[in-house]
Specification:
The protein is α/β, with parallel strands linked by helices. The chain folds into two domains: 2-109 and 284-314, Alpha-Beta Complex (Quinone Oxidoreductase, Chain A, domain 1), CATH 3.90.180; 114-251, Quinone Oxidoreductase, Chain A, domain 1, CATH 3.90.180. Helix content is 28%, strand content 27%. Strands 3, 4, 5, 6, 7, 14 and 15 form a seven-stranded mixed sheet that branches. Helix 7 (211-216) links the parallel strand 11 and strand 12. Helix 3 crosses helix 9 (259-278). The longest helix has 20 residues, at 259-278. This is Zinc-binding dehydrogenase. Keywords: NADP, Oxidoreductase. Pfam families: ADH_N, ADH_zinc_N.
């Protein structure tokens, strides 16, 4: 099959055998794959493996222990080896694509919904009426987080972005307030927006040296969920602020989760969000669609940070 491999020359087209599903896996004929920043690390590995972690397509085969899926089902998935004509994943890492939604639209939804539902609902424990801030909101995952917060009854949704053009669009995706986190007064503006209380749930995609400022925007007994480190993986922490606000801080990643954990979080996400996905209440803008063989150009566009929304690879049948 045709695939995009991580080589010493970067992301390159190549041929590789069609993967075989293990007993608990499904084999999917890929119709479209979505780019994610983690794919850049996959390219850098130069290990000859197929790149990509998110795709949509039609099931072509199932493992011997799979009973809930069958060939012909249209699914959106997360896993590994997405930039290819075929990919396999665990039976619990797929979600049915509603009728009328194309593969290019579906492929951008799965990882963002998994990540943000888990961060907001499970780790963040957001209750209806509480305030939610997505710190670093102009990414695809961030845009989805604001929409999920609004859907699930957040009292107010705050999105931050240091890019003025992207910040101007955050209200299209659920933000009640769109703030520049690089502005000197941004903490005061958030406190003003919350009548001095601070934010109940913060999904932090920035981290780094700015973390103390982030803590200052948090309410007493607030929850900060770390899902990204765009500002850096290290910083000096003022533990006095952490203690004074009695903040609960949780870090989340897929890399250390078991198969059962990912199955559970996917099932919870599908329970809460399937209807909204089918009704197109949750959506992500598609910046550009590239053919599979132009994956290197698509990755370059993502790396240059020139896009708003998601970049997609189309995989023709």
């Amino acid at each position: 099959m045709k695939a995009i491999l991580a080589t010493s020359a970067g992301a390159q087209p190549g041929d590789t055998p069609v993967p075989r599903p293990e007993p608990d896996q499904i084999l999917v004929r890929v119709g479209a794959a979505s780019l994610n920043r983690a794919d850049l690390s996959g390219v850098a590995a130069k290990d000859g493996k197929v790149i990509g972690m998110e795709w949509a397509g039609e099931i072509a085969g199932v493992g011997s222990a799979v009973t809930e899926w069958r060939p012909g089902d249209r699914v959106m998935c997360t896993g590994t080896g997405a930039y290819a004509e075929y990919a396999v994943t665990d039976r619990g890492r797929a979600m049915r694509i509603p009728d009328g939604i194309a593969f290019e639209e579906a492929t951008v939804l799965m990882l963002a919904c998994q990540t943000m539902h888990n961060a907001i609902v499970t780790a963040g424990r957001m209750q209806r009426g509480e305030t939610l801030m997505i710190h670093g909101a102009s990414s695809g995952v961030g845009l989805m987080g604001m929409q999920i917060g609004k859907l699930l009854g957040a009292g107010a949704v705050i999105g931050t972005s240091t890019n003025s053009a992207r910040r101007s669009r955050l209200q299209e995706f659920g933000a009640d307030y769109a703030l520049d986190a690089s502005a000197p007064e941004w903490v005061e503006r958030i406190l003003d927006a919350t009548a001095g209380k601070g934010v109940d749930v913060i999904v932090d995609q920035v981290s780094g040296p700015a973390f103390n400022q982030t803590m200052k925007t948090c309410a007493k007994l607030g929850r900060i969920v770390n899902v990204g480190r765009l500002g850096g993986s290290e910083g000096v922490v003022d533990f006095n602020w952490h203690a004074l606000r009695r903040i609960s801080y949780t870090g989340v990643t897929f890399r250390t989760r078991s198969v059962d954990e990912i199955r559970d979080l996917t099932a919870l996400m599908a329970r809460d969000l399937s209807a909204a996905i089918a009704e197109r209440k949750l959506r992500l803008p598609i910046d550009r669609v590239f053919p599979l063989e132009q994956a290197a150009a698509a990755l370059d566009r993502m790396s240059s940070n020139a896009h708003f929304g998601k970049i997609v690879l189309s995989v023709p049948a």
